[in-house]
Amino acid sequence: MKILKIAILKDDFDEILSGEKTEVYQDFIPFWEEQLLINDKEGVRFREYDAVEFRNGFEANVPTILIEWKGTELGLFDEAPRGSKDPEDYFFVINLGKIIETKNC
């Protein structure tokens, strides 16, 4: 199973656990480009995952949610011009499905 791992704050963690939050946003920065995009001779495309693991902290026994990954897309900031080619005008949207597993919640 290919899993995208993300550490998040408690408020966001609780909203995902309750089902209130069904997508998360990440800045269009080199770290997230590496995690979410493939850029090769076939062009640029989104990486595929089976699930997303959200951790509320970095220690061994922190609360963890494993949730179905439903795809990644780009969002455009409201103030950005349509058709912009500037990466700073965009952000990643990670769409979430059903909860597969929880630990220490």
List keywords for this structure.
105 residues; alpha+beta; 5-stranded mixed beta sheet; two-stranded antiparallel sheet; 7 strands
* Helical coverage, percent range: 10-25%
**What can be said about the biggest beta sheet?**
5 strands, mixed
Number of E-state strands: 7
Cα shape = globular
SSE order, one letter for each helix or strand: EHEHEEEEE
Number of helices, where a helix is a run of at least 4 consecutive DSSP H or I residues: 2
- Beta strand %: over 45%
Spatial order of strands in the largest sheet: 1-5-6-7-2
Query: Helix/strand-derived class?
Result: alpha+beta
Report the mean per-residue pLDDT as an integer: 94
Euclidean distance between termini CA atoms: 22 Å
| Structural Rg | 15 Å
Low-confidence stretches: none
Number of domains in the coordinates? 1
Question: Layout of helices and strands, plus pairs?
Answer:
Elements: E1 3-7, H1 10-18, E2 23-27, H2 30-36, E3 37-40, E4 43-46, E5 51-55, E6 64-76, E7 90-103
Parallel strand pairs: 1-5
Antiparallel strand pairs: 2-7, 3-4, 5-6, 6-7
Would you give an account of this structure?
By secondary structure, this protein is of the alpha+beta class. The protein has one domain. 15% of the residues lie in helices and 48% in strands. It has two helices and seven strands; from the N terminus they run E-H-E-H-E-E-E-E-E. The chain has helices spanning 10-18, 30-36, and strands at 3-7, 23-27, 37-40, 43-46, 51-55, 64-76, 90-103. The strands form two sheets. The protein has a five-stranded mixed sheet with strand order 1-5-6-7-2, with helices on one face. A two-stranded antiparallel ribbon has the order 3-4. A hairpin with a 2-residue loop joins strand 3 (37-40) and strand 4. The radius of gyration is 15 Å and the shape is globular. The mean pLDDT is 94.
